[in-house]
Amino acid sequence: MSFKKPSARPLQHHLSSYFITVSAMRRDGWVVMARCRACHLDAWVCLSTVIRLNGPDVQLFGRTTRCRRYGCQGRMIFMATPPGAQHGQFWPLLRPQEPKDGSTPLS
Q: How far apart, in whole angstroms, are the C-alpha atoms of residue 105 and residue 48?
C-alpha cells in the first residue's frame, strides 16, 4: 500500500475524514475559518490556539461555537480548506448524515 501526501489526496477524502483531530489538521496544512449562520461574520481560526485551549485531540467536524460579534446570538460553523485544495474555497466541516437503514456511515 502506498502513502499519498495530504496535498495529493482528493477533496472527497478530506471532507469525509470527519474523525481528524486539530493537531492532524495543523500538521497537514488545513486553513480553517468560522462563519456565523445569523450575521455571516467570518473569522479565521488559529489551530495552534485551539490546541492550546482545548487539547490536541479535539475535532471540529460537526461542532459549532457562539458568534464573536457583539449582540449576535447566532452560532458559527467551522469551514476549512483541505491541503492541496484551492485557497479561498471553504467547505463546511459537517458530520455525515446517519443512514436511515441503521448502518454506520463508514460501512
A: 30
Q: How many other CB atoms sit within 10 Å of the CB of residue 46?
A: 12
Domain boundaries, the chain: 6-89
Specify the higher pLDDT residue, 10 or 32. 32
Q: What is the pLDDT of residue 102?
A: 55
Residue 73: closest CA among 38, 35, 43: 38
Say what the alpha-carbon torsion angle 93, 98, 99, 104 is, to the nearest 10 degrees: 100
pTM over 0.90: no
Q: Is 60 exposed, middle or buried (0-12, 13-18, 19+ CB in 10 A)?
A: buried
Beta pairing, strands 42-45 & 64-66: unpaired
